[in-house]
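[AMINO ACID CHAIN]
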Amino acid sequence: MDNANEPRVTNIKVNPDNLYREETFTDLTYASIRRLTPVKIDGSIDESRETFFTGMAQLMSPNGPIPVQCIIEGAKTLSDAIAKLPDAIEKTVKEMIAEAKEMESKESSRIVMPGQ
C-alpha cells in the first residue's frame, strides 16, 4: 500500500526519452547477444536514435565461470554483431586483465603504516 505520509525508500525514475526494446539471441552454448532498439514512449521505433548490440559470454577460470559483457561497437545488424562478438569479448577481457593488474600493482605498492 502506498502511504503518502511515509518517506520513500527508493528514488527510481524511468527516463521516457531513453527507452529501448530488448531482444536476446543465443546459441545456447557460448554467447548471448542483445539487440537494443530505441523506442518512443508509445512503443514505436524511434528512428532518431541508433540500435545497438551488446554481447555476453562466460569464460571459465580456475575459480569458476566469469561473466563478460561488452558493447559490440559498429554492429548494424544481427549477423554483423555475431561476426564482431569474438573481438569485442577479447577486447573486454584484455581491459579487465589490465585493470586487475593495475589494481594489484596499486595494492602491492601501498605503504602500510603501523597502527593504521
In short: The chain has one domain: 19-104. The chain has one helix and four strands. Residues 19-104 form one domain. Residues 78-109 form the longest helix (32 residues).
